[in-house]
Amino acid sequence: MKAKTLESYSMGIGDRFGHQGRAQLQAMLQARAEGIEVVPVWNKSFREHSIIGTKPSDVRTEADEAVAALRWTAGYYVDADHINFKNVEPFIACSDFFTLDVAEEIGRPASPDAAEAFIRSCRDFLGTLKIAGIERPIVISEKTLQAAAAKYLLAVQKAGEIYRYLVSRKGEGQFITEVSMDETDQPQTPVELLLILAAVAREGIPAQTIAPKFTGRFNKGVDYVGNLEQFEKEFNEDLAVIAFAIKEFGLPANLKLSVHSGSDKFSIYPPIRRAIRRFGAGLHLKTAGTTWLEELIGLAEAGGPGLQIAKEVYAKAFENRQEFCAPYATVIDIDPAKLPPIDEVNRWDGPQFAAALRHDPACPRYNPHFRQLLHVGYKAAAQMGRRFTDALEQFEDQIAPHVTANLLERHIRPVFGGR
Length: 419
Prior knowledge:
Layout: E1 9-14, H1 21-33, E2 39-45, H2 46-52, H3 56-70, E3 77-83, E4 97-101, H4 112-121, E5 127-129, E6 138-140, H5 142-170, E7 176-180, H6 190-202, E8 209-211, H7 228-249, E9 256-260, H8 269-279, E10 283-286, H9 290-302, H10 304-319, H11 321-325, H12 342-346, H13 350-357, H14 368-376, H15 378-382, H16 386-394, H17 396-416
Parallel strand pairs: 1-2, 1-10, 2-3, 3-4, 4-7, 7-8, 8-9, 9-10
Antiparallel strand pairs: 5-6
């Protein structure tokens, strides 16, 4: 059986309630008509399944049905998003893309023997190393190797264990592997990324995407917060390191960066686009709740019962904001004083609600605190059960165009277009 090879451009598209598969895929069909070839990767984490009450096979069903309905003929995938040994089992049969999340192991030291073996394997890099695409040579010392082994080696070993288990269940080459290293406090330096990739190669993981930690904040549903010049420098250097590692370590030729965006990092899209053009590199862009928020916008603009549901979702999220925000504390910045009171929101009409929620910083009504709370407040909609999902079906004609336009105009074209 032919090994699965991820296309150059791919996009992780979350769909928390499983109703927008066709609307999402329509964006990629329209992009393809414009000469932009990007493939969909439907992703949904164990946490989201647990909150909403869905199961991983539901995502496969949604993807397959959307592909059949729209006669999509290119590749597509279903991602077991941020899995580990604790939660991988339900995803195995229905997924063909696995994001290996080993964040719990980052910072925990590997065994002394394993660390010494890794350090010994990397000693050829001691001293000054010139990598094409990085302006200044990088310097690697014995202390550098020791620090990388102490921080990342056990995590990569754990990723190797999960990968080999998946091979035993699905067969070699029958799924795409991503290694996620973004759940850590500090961004990785080019040297650290190089040594992480060295460890990945030693573990025999044919990673096709790697998700490092980038500089700045990637808060859910709102724009990037940080130094754009520094981000662009780091992103270009990461691409240079990947190109070097592919040749040096024999990693897959299509290995590419994965950006776990949290959705809507519009200001970093131009630097990303310039960088992938410069290097001729691929990219996996993973979005999260942007589709769920477009559903709320569509419901609000539909008025009547749709608007009422949107208001109730906000009220529930506002009342339970500590509970709803807790799992996402490191990726949101919400000032409670800037959240509109429930009684104020209840007086809004549909366009007012949509304007506060829609990610348009030029609009005076846009409220990023309101948007972030609703981004993580999908549990409120889940608790409505069929009432919410029935509304998605009732107002599909109002919602679907928002979902399609958002992905195409705000994400796909700015990142992948014009090449």
